[in-house]
Amino acid sequence: ISLFALDKLSKRVAQNERTFFTYLASKDDNSLYRFLNNHDLEEFHFVGIDEIFDYFAPSVKSTQSDASYEWYKELQSALSKNHSTSDDDTPEVKILKVIATIGIINDASTLVANKATIQSVIDCPNEVIANAIEGLCERKIIKYSGAYDRYDFFEASIFDVEEMINDESQSITDDAVISTLNEEFVNFALYPYEYN
Predict the structure, then answer these.
(1) Angle at 113 between CA 108 and CA 129, to 5 degrees
(2) pTM of the predicted model, to two decimals?
């Protein structure tokens, strides 16, 4: 999955200095070379999509005219709500980067930001990822869309509209509806502009 993401992300946002091949061969920050130097080779580790995002983040940030940059801005907003930065090495930050990367790749027929995918593309125990996803949802940083079986960034608003509707609808009685209709629409008539 990470190799697929590397290919798709490099095609979408790569620039001369940051490409598929420079990721594999260079000694740049966040490249494969740096990954191998930073991990104990005696233990099994894999390159997660979050780490691939780190390599291409400067390219995504510099292309401010397409959908990739919109995902980058949403990631920055989510990181801010989480009181973290993209340099933090927490499961929550990794999840947010994965959601942004999958959004940038934009190939829902192949790669969707659901729980199974997120757990598969982050080098971290599944239980830790599951707990982090739950925490991000509870804090309304990400949301789960059951219709599409995917996680996405929670769209920020100072109002929780659904909660406001639920609160108001519980206080509305049939008598209140009838009274409002009689008061507001008693002298309400529609006159035709034309006749047949």
Answers:
(1) 165
(2) 0.74
